[in-house]
Amino acid sequence: PLLSYVGASLPGGWWDYDRYGLVPRQGEIVVDPVYDSVWPMGGYIDGDFDDWVDLGVFSLEQTLPVGPDGGYEMRYALAARDGSWVSGSDYLYVGMVDAGHIWAVELDGTGVMLDAQGQELWRLPLPVGDEDAVWTYQGGMAGSLWWSEGVGICYRQAGQSLIHMDGTMVHGGEKGWRDPQGFSEGLAPAVDNFRTPEQGDIWGYVDRNGEWAVSPIYRRVQDFHDGKAIVELPDGTMRVIDTAGNMLWESDQGRMALYQGDGFSYYCHLEDVDERYFVQVLGLYDLDLKPIQSEAVGKTLYAGTSGWLYEETETGTRLYSSQGVRDIPAKGSLNYILDGLLIFRQDQPDGTALWSAYDMEGRELLAPVVCDYMGTITDNGTGISYLYVQWVPGGRCDLYDHTGRHLISTASYPDVKDGLITARTDLSFGYQTLEGDWIFRISLAKSQGD
User: Fold this and answer.
1) Taking a C-beta distance cutoff of 8 angstroms, is the pair 381, 54 a contact?
2) Model confidence at 49, in pLDDT bands (50, 70, 90)?
3) What are phi and psi of 251, to 5 degrees?
4) 216 with 243: CB under 8 angstroms?
């Protein structure tokens, strides 16, 4: 597999412009630094953001001289991560569709569906203007589609269209809807196109064929999860409905929220208390909308991240969720949770902040320390999460594993890719293993001039 590297940093008016090349783990350069960017194509393919897919394909962005006047424009190429194939720089836009497909737009505005090996499957003209899509040669959407569950949402100036995986298109103007959002469980929120601006947007749900599946009667809507969606009526009444629009739960007090994190999901009926994210918990429900007995009900808690609510106690912090109660011996604000790693920040009178890290069992992983930032980072190649401490803004970082064991120090923020760490300074770029061994390093001094 090839890795992208920064091989030059060119000074600009407001910031430096990095130039990227390609190199294997063995360290011998394959492509010189000629690209504006190199992106490994991948993404989450589920609404819960649990399943990350890597296509094994690079998107290669390059500024090229085009036309007789010598002007420059951005072009994209596709390449296999192992270098086994590469396309020409023939596209204005490329994007991932799903685990096996890529959407690209050619110079004349034609949309092309490709497989993950770069083979063309079909093509569809995307006319300029407001007929089907907005696209421009530079600086515009370039026919970019929002793909979800095998359906592409093609935006245009007046209404939108849906494009299916076989290349067929459904026009929203003909069906009476506009502004469709992403699909979840086969349905996408959309606005009733027959309402006037004075009436405000009224939302419903359309199916893959562009037909109304749930009538547009709601002021706000959310995605479906486990066959249910949270909606709000124009009078402020909250409901949970099924995919046929049937009411499963209703209340004219507070609002309903779906909390998710670390593999669990539940509904929380709550009342907002103030702008600092404190809420009064009116009830907890499982995904079948059956009440959950919880100490959180009736309390005013901070609406945290990853499905946990919390409050400060005399001995630390107490977390609440559908999974029960967890006591963590740490004070301050719970800044972040990821994969069972908790980051706390405690502001000090002198303007500094004490940062610390714990696991969900309350074990201290990193003792409180004054630093610029403490956070977590995930290797998308391996799915492993790490802790890091940044000591000064944009400066040296220390990387730790999930047990708090120190791994390596880096000169700047550590990007982790497939078990390797990017090491960037003003004068060099390279890759190191988690043990600190260099597998590649290149000087940036030559591109910096004086």
Assistant:
1) yes
2) low
3) -160, 145
4) no
